[in-house]
Amino acid sequence: MRLNMFINGEWVSSINKETREIINPFNQEVIATVAEGSREDAKQAIVAARKTFDEGTWSTTPASERGEIVRKIGELILQEKEELARLETLDTGKTIEESRADMDDISNVFFYFAGLADKDGGELIESPIPHSTSKIVREPIGVCGQITPWNYPLLQAAWKLAPALASGNTLVLKPSEITPLTSVKVFELFEQAGVPKGVANLVLGAGAEVGAELAENTDVDLISFTGGIETGKTIMQAASTNVKKVALELGGKNPNIVFADADFDVAVDQALNAVFFHAGQVCSAGSRLLVEESIHDQFVEALVKRTKQIKLGNGFDDSTQSGPLISAEHRAKVEGYVEVGLKEGAQLVVGGGRPEQAELQNGFFYLPTIFTGCTSEMRIVQEEVFGPVLTVETFKTKEEAVKKANDTIYGLAGAVFTKDIDKAEDVARQLRMGTVWINDFHPYFAQAPWGGYKQSGFGRELGKIGFEEYTEVKHVYRNT
Ligand code: NAD
């Protein structure tokens, strides 16, 4: 497979003809060779997006027509679901079942924003000045730079692409350089759906080159970034060149609070789902378990028993429950954190190494791992590992649980498990996080906004707010 970039309605290789090999993390086979763009390629894509926006044809296309095109993209994604899911599993190692679920979610994201495209007719407000009218309208921002990570390659892109298109912007997407396959495929679907030339552009390549150009370039009006906290800080600084709008979806160190009165089996199931889903490579992974002291031993015993049964393997095998980590570098990072945990005195109760099965030796696998005896001061409790590593702390009171849960620089998501709904709602109110789940972990959908408090970022994706992020607000005052 050889894949190119999509700039101004044309499939193009990079100007300097460089390429990059894309690796399957399950067996390290080369699955594709893709164009490796440079700053010059990114500049060309930005020029195309700028010119197209300034010509105004897309932003003035009736919103209902834009909505129809966005809806068509959602339909094409459903038609191509199997192929897209196959590419996502090849590229990330996640199970094919997860990839199929991602494609369903992604098509729903396009349907949701397609529906919102023509719903905002502006608002008339009462002017305090006699003989005047005031109306508030929303308009597209302009050229959007969009940078996405490798853990949910197409899903994270869809959260940005769909609202940007529906609201009349032009855009340049830069997916993670290690997982570009589904983004390339979806741009083919954009063409089929009738997205006009120059509206949506795709550049491939390294963050420090192509991504940095998007963040710095003064012809870009908004930069929307999903990725790690340090990259987010760099992008925020770079964006100051022209005071472009910034939206940051960064990491998390998400607490999962289990009270003694929770439904035990549901809480065990969800504590495992929270941290080990997609090998823990999820921004909202429930990687910090806070369990009420009275049930700690029993709860950990159940977790350890179940963790040992998690079947690692090829994402294409139906029996596989968890795939490999994304890369050798990322596994080395996870291994480094396990070393840190051990040095800090946390007790390793399961995992803590690579699996021994011969058939897993070519993949970047790491065993699901649990540490008990953890405290808030430990780095393993404070820093995002982004892998299958759970830390367990205990608490005695609701107040202590909330205090420990909030004791982090992050504020992306958290969960609380209890049968006492008043208590659950009280905890939900006190958690400083963008999403709180009660008696569940991980549900998200196009209708509900997603984003972080504190250093998990700012701005929201999905929901009505996620649409509004791609608009400017204008007050039109008329002296009658
Ligand atoms: P990363 O920050 O290394 O890379 C993300 C993207 O930024 C990639 O496309 C990369 O090429 C690009 N990039 C790197 N350096 C850049 C620079 N100097 N300028 C511009 N772009 C640059 O993150 P990652 O390892 O791909 O993803 C993992 C991180 O993403 C985790 O921290 C995770 O929590 C976070 N994440 C957050 C959410 C969310 O919704 N909050 C969702 C998914 C992932």
TrEMBL record:
Residue ranges of every copy of the Aldehyde dehydrogenase domain listed in the record: 11-476
Gene3D superfamilies according to UniProt: Aldehyde Dehydrogenase, Chain A, domain 1 (3.40.605.10), Aldehyde Dehydrogenase, Chain A, domain 2 (3.40.309.10)
GO molecular function, a single term: betaine-aldehyde dehydrogenase (NAD+) activity
Coiled coil region boundaries: none
Active site: 249
Keywords: NAD, Oxidoreductase
Keyword NAD: yes
Pathway recorded for this protein: Amine and polyamine biosynthesis; betaine biosynthesis via choline pathway; betaine from betaine aldehyde: step 1/1
EC nos: 1.2.1.8
Catalytic class of the enzyme: oxidoreductase
Family label: Belongs to the aldehyde dehydrogenase family.
Protein name: Betaine-aldehyde dehydrogenase
UniProt source species: Alkalicoccobacillus murimartini
